[in-house]
Structures
1.
Amino acid sequence: MAMRGEQTAVRDGLSRDVGTTGRAGIAARTLRSDRWWRYPLATVTVLLCFIGYASYAALANRDYYADPYLSPFYSPCLAKGCGAVPGSRWAPHLGWFGTWWIITPAVIILIFPLGFRLTCYYYRKAYYRSWWRSPAACAVPERHQNYSGEARFPLVIHFVHRYFFYAAVVFNVVLTWDAIIAFDWGGRFGMGLGTLVLLVNAVLLWLYTLSCHACRHAVGGRINHFSHHRIRYRFWTVVSKLNPYHGVFAWASLVWVGLSDGYVRLVASGTIHDPRFF
Amino acid sequence: MTPDRSVSTELSLHVWRGDADSGGFVDYAVPVDKGEVVLDTVLRLQATQAGDLAVRWNCKAGKCGSCSAEINGMPKLMCMTRLSTLPAGPVTITPLRTFPVIRDLVTDVSANYRKAQEIPAFTPPAGPVPDGYRMDQADVGRSQEFRTCIECWLCQDVCHVIRDHEDNKAAYSGPRFFIRHAELDMHPLDSLDRRGLIHGQGGLGLCNVTKCCTEVCPAGIKITDNAIIPMKERAIDQRYDPLRLLMRRWRHRPGREERPDAH
């Protein structure tokens, strides 16, 4: 046990700031004793898993349609080649890219959800902390010598988030339609486990998109006189209630969209049988 | 595992003592009672073992923002940190690491007050206001959250933009003043367009929205979500969004009317 006022700890060497800025000379980079590394570690792990799976699923170019389920990674299918590969027979397509598009049609559309998430304010926090470690956690110093944040190119390009938000709304409409037609079993109303999977996928994507900060700004955040814009104020209030859960929706929708593709893939390849509820 | 500090016991305190020239950690064993906060322990230490310990405090109720320090490496108010919430083992207390130390746990936070002086005050429109100054709750709701700031400077302390990069201090207002900018910019009767100010002089672009300011705020202000990100979006309206730039040029209204969207 330490005696009264006894200086048992070795006096720390002065940090590089002392003498120039007058900060307390504390050598330890951080004195946090909790497990602050859990968040960046979990973030890196989940993102790496998703990037790995999504790359495989997008490049596989097969097993993405099992009537009436279309994988969200391939929807909307824009090339005429959709339906011509194994595990995709009769897949609906818009045909905008004709027959000349011969590689996987997933790459045409994945750029939009990818861009939306890459520029999302929540994901920015997640990957700045986990990949850039700028900072890895609060009060844990970063190791970069210079820092310009989002003030310069290329990170200033994040302003395009609002355009990706509008694109995400369009994609949500398409994926909601996919969930609706998943009730169509050859002209009869029915429901299988895949219908439920696609339905949950659409709901989570809407929650993630509508809780977005760019959405909050667009519906009313840029207004100062809310009392003069009652309807927009109502919209802003609703989005503001969703907004604190934006991070939760971000992870849930990311994981679920991967699971949705995985489920359709397993059914389309004949690995599992889709249980029918009615 | 959280220790059982619900009964009287003895706590091992690891306190940084020193000034700008030299300093280091000193270990103390201090008796504590159930339900106490860190500040109780520090004041008992000062009263019984270290009479020369410098510590700044005032209200002991989380309202004055005086007793800011770093407890086990995290910026916190000493008066609002219950011992029972800390993990087992010694408790480490240091002064705020972003600001110059004066002595022991007291730092010189005057740079923040100089930053405050750089922000133009509320600027009402010239002449009489049509509806007077009666305000609708819908118009002041957002600003009211920002008015709960107690200026403890924990958000300024934890912000890595200046904590890890001393050279950014001159060009960066910091989270506390971003909410001040936001409070005024969102005010229906403020006639200044503050978007250029917060982006230029305030250095808003340096913030990478990692939300540490929000995590440490003892007033529970959602600094990043409710002030910084909305101001980033407003700055984008003004500076970067090509469609809005075209729209503004097309409407072409002078002065305050350049942002009809805000009204």
2.
Amino acid sequence: MSTSLELTLRPDASPTRHLPGDLAMWFFILAELTVFALLLLTFAVAQALQPQLFHDGRQLLDSSTGLALTLSLLTSGLFAALAQEQVRQAQARRGAWLLLAALLSASVYVWLKLGEYSHLANSGLGMEHNTFFTLYWILTGFHFVHVLLGLVILSWLAERCRQGAYGPGNCSALESGVLYWHMVDLVWVLLFPLVYVLN
Amino acid sequence: MSASTTLIACWLGLAVLSFASVQLGSAGATLLMVCAVLLAALGKAWLIADGFMELRHAPPMWRWLILSWPVVMAAGVLLALSVSL
């Protein structure tokens, strides 16, 4: 598969339109977004059918924890994007440090989410409690698995960056990994209001 | 504006919209509030797509494909929730 897709526009201004990363990653992202779309819409339809149950279930979640989860993921996304920018400017070591910062910020998300899962499980609010918590565990659990995979990818990218494997003309793999991480962010910004906020 | 400054500006916008979502959510369960929260989510999704994923420089087909995903999601959620409001 080609490393990047470039289309020539006008010769005078905006000469090229560039799709970062590998084209295969973009098809993967489309597939992932489709799966998450089905889950998110299922959650919304179930809420429409049982509004009181979902209202009561949501009261047992802490929206400030949801906000902290959001900020940790978004901050991690920022660091990953800044790392990519540094690598393009031939600053691979600085890029590696920024990827490490992205990893640490994502670890805050994991720590907070595990705390929330533990609290809910200890309160008897497991997957079988009611429809709200069944869908809560499926939706957020599926997203959480993606976050864990993202941590592995960020760690790999940071190590490769440290080794100097990426540079201004050779960063398609880095772009693809970072794109995956932004996809995880993209899903979360829709998941967060649906699960934690919208009564 | 440098690329790094643009990214930081995107992050600031994302943080402000996240705080706004939670504040709006605690304001009550009306259709207007749901619309406002979903609009904030839509704005965040577009900031990620155009800013972090760099789709503002991408071929239009890919850009619109990704930008339309949060629109479809927000519309679907609004349609579903408006039934119960």
